[in-house]
Fold this sequence. Notes:
Number of strands: 9
CATH superfamily: Luciferase-like domain
Oligomer: single chain
Strand order of the largest sheet: 1-2-3-4-5-6-7-9
CATH architecture: Alpha-Beta Barrel
Number of helices: 11
Amino acid sequence: MSLNNIPFSFLDLVPVLHNGSIQEAFKNSLFMAKKAEELGFKRFWLAEHHNMDGIACSATPVLISYIASNTKTIRVGSGGIMLPNHTPLVVAEQFGTLQEIYGNRIDLGVGRARGGNYESALLVRKERMFSDENFFEEFQNLEDFLGNTETSKVKAIPGYNTKVPLYLLGSSLYSAQMAAKKGLPYAFASHFAPKYLLEALKLYRENFIPSEMLEKPYAIVALPSSLAPTQEEALFLASSSYQRALSLFRDGSLRLKPPVPFLDIDWNPNEKVSVLSLLSQMVIGEKSNAKKFLSSLLCNTQADEFIFTCDIYDQDKRIRSLELLAQVMQE
């Protein structure tokens, strides 16, 4: 399998710049989506986060509508909706509505994390007691609401029988097992949690049970990225990602900071190891190095699709990285 045989997509966290506005972040996200569509990206996903000052995608279905209404062909969806924060009925109604408005190009990726800290989770959905058992049950309810199940007196309107495509997201072995049991596509979050990537994919494929939606396993691998004409510039631009990860460990602001020379990042040895481990799967460099890295990763993972994030500070250089990435995947 070669890179130009698999689809590639983009996952946007709608980054807010340290001296920028949320309105600017939304405009940048839309511009990225339009450019991704032009460059041949398959889908453009947005991820639910709460109480994070540098990530402006908390109202994920609203942003999906914003992106979908201003694009034509690219699939738009969630990467993902954090189901513990919502009732299955409301999620089904929201995405059923999106499907009815924009036709069959809406994706519903679902995760079982909170997408924020404990305090924000309590305010999003106070009565929710999180457990794996609850997640499995509520995911099944969500499937039922989007299907044509007649056993319940309550239907999702819109939502009923729309069969919005479901994707299970995760960074753990539990999510891999559940995706396999449900016969669903599985997206692994190696853009921030690469530790179990190979083990999770192996578990998913070995235990996969075909379903109405999917006959064989379909694995999406999420990767951070920073591409530039030279290796040195790509590393320099990637420092914004490293600084954001460092702030995450320090419980600081997640607003995206301007790049700095790698050697000038203010971290101690333990923090440096943690940050580099978190972002160990970053596609970084000029085109030939990026291609070598992705080709090797494709060989190791046998991914059916790559989905990329990008936290480059300068919007023009972020767009340029997107263009270089598309060239690597298509050449």
